[in-house]
Amino acid sequence: MVPQTTTEFNAMALDNATASLNRAGGTAAASLRYAQLPFPRKYHLWLTQVAQVKERYHHRLVYIRTTRQAATVVTATVSRLMALSPDELHYPLNIRFAGEPGVDAGGLEREWYNVVTTALFDPHNGYFVEVEHASKSMLIHPNASPKWFRGIGRFLGRALFDGHPIPARMNGIVYKQLLGVPYNVEDVQFVDVSIYRSLKWLQSQQLPTTYHTSTPATTVDALELDFSVLETDLDERGDPIGTSYVVDLKPHGRHIRVTNANVAEYVELYVHRLCLTRVSPCVAALRHGLQDVLPPSMLLLDMMDHKELELLLCGAQDVDVADWKKYCYVIASKAAVNPIEIVKWFWDIVASMPRERQVKLLQYVTGSVCVPLHGFQALTNRDGSICHFTLRIVSLEEATYPVAHTCSNRLDLPRYEDKTTLWHALDMITAMDVTGFSTA
């Protein structure tokens, strides 16, 4: 039997997965066992766990009414999610945007995830701050208020639960923070390259095991460092504000000199301060919110490593046009003449687009800027049914411009007379703001 929905797909392995959990001897033992599995098997188990929970609540519904305004959409979303009970956190969602007539059949839900995520990682809003690194990824803002982060954790947990990949730009350190994975000096290079180089140099100066007290003092001693760091508060964008202040890395650290004998401890404490201590209240709240939706019994945070968790949350980062084309259905209205030619033009144009335009087109048709983890074959509608990208060729009498139906991942494409006209039409929709219920 070929499964048609996520639930059917995972139900095929449900009995085996449950039996495996029982044989493993409970949650703790199962976590250790499944953490050692290859990612495809972990992912399959994860989908099975989600399917079990969704089956219990599929007949319920929770309503979320919100705005698109970047300044308020995060706080409105967090407030609504924090008002939900543990059971309600797993109900199917029904999204409505203020002042818009759209009825949510899945497309608005995907768009809601994108709108909230965009605002959440906007550096002007002060929840996350961009690191000085080529990746332009985001860390938790060191001056952010922890009061919002449990709700943000619920939002991220719900995205994982729903299988909606979101454009979360979180630094790898944040995923380690969520999983409680230890840090090391190598992580610092993804935060601040200059600090990383300094700490690596200090590491190289620690005493060898054959050191004798008669050996002269070396470079570390001459630096006159102590077990403290100088920090400055940051504004929403991460720029320094106010005066700097001293923070001890250990009790009375400002009075303890760093030497070649204790430099390894200094580096370890510095890394811990940089990667966790300064934002630990926000991390604790974020993890708490994530576990509100994904409790330990679902094993996710125990069996996935930080790279796998990022892959689950964000999906594939590149748009594979060949894969997109492979899993595309084509239908045509009776009035459309010679649809094969325009389909060929369409894919030629998409293949020639820069990545940002391809992403805009994907968002216009599906409501999401991310490709599912398993590629375009895994596109779904709101109830988890496989719902492939579809091109419906229509006559110019039926439509003048391409029209998207995000709830069914379908693009109605007029049968233009030539490739240039089609190019201009696609260029127009990928150049404009494609959010909002105005073209579908």
Structure in words:
- The chain has helices spanning 6-11, 14-24, 27-35, 39-57, 73-82, 107-120, 149-162, 172-179, 193-204, 219-222, 263-275, 280-293, 300-303, 306-314, 321-326, 339-352, 355-366, 419-431; strands at 62-66, 93-97, 128-130, 138-140, 228-231, 245-248, 328-332, 389-394, 403-405, 410-414.
- Helix content is 44%, strand content 10%.
- The longest helix has 19 residues, at 39-57.
- It starts with 5 loop residues before the first helix and ends in a 9-residue tail after the last helix.
- The chain has 3 domains: 6-20 and 30-178 and 278-314, Hect, E3 ligase catalytic domain fold (Alpha-Beta Complex), CATH 3.90.1750; 185-274, Hect, E3 ligase catalytic domain (2-Layer Sandwich), CATH 3.30.2160; 321-431, Hect, E3 ligase catalytic fold (2-Layer Sandwich).
- The radius of gyration is 26 Å and the shape is elongated.
- A hairpin with a 4-residue loop joins strand 9 and strand 10.
- By secondary structure, the chain is α/β, with parallel strands linked by helices.
- It contains 18 helices and 10 strands.
- The strands form 4 sheets. A 4-stranded mixed beta sheet has the order 7-8-10-9.
